[in-house]
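thoughts on these tokens:
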Amino acid sequence: MDNIMMATVDGQETAVLIDFEQSRNTFSWVPTEIYLIEWLGIVANASRVPPSVRDKYTKLLQEYCTPRGVDFLTFGKSNFYDNPHTGWYLPWVASTAAEQEAGNVCLLGKVIWCIFEGVEFPTFIESPSAIQELIKSCTEGSREWSEGLLGLTRNGSKIYPHGKSGQGGQ
């Protein structure tokens, strides 16, 4: 909900949605395409990962980024503050315009869901069926639809493996 601000436009209060990029937000709020590139970068830069594995993932990122006009080896590594017009978040900068638009649509779906629901995504309780279909269409491909990579369920303030939460007869 950090992306919803209130503003007055022509004397009317209205909601303004901002920062769909979701740079450095929790992975559950990142479009799948961005999430996967982020993890490649984490492995490529992790000091505790064996050099041969880091090299493999560095090469994968170079092969992905170079044709898109981004040099993975030097991107964001300056010792000086800068504010490039394209931004500084590698997975987003290396995305094509179509990929960025798809990411924005996915995040718009999650923001719409957030407005109607107060439970774990993608659970629906309050959303009208037309809004549910819009959200499903926007977020198609999100890992939550297949129970996510971690296989976790939240019950109140506690997290459990799927099937062990005590909810719904588990």
User: Anything to note?
Assistant: Helices lie at 32-45, 51-65, 90-93, 97-116, 129-138. The two ends are 30 Å apart (CA to CA).
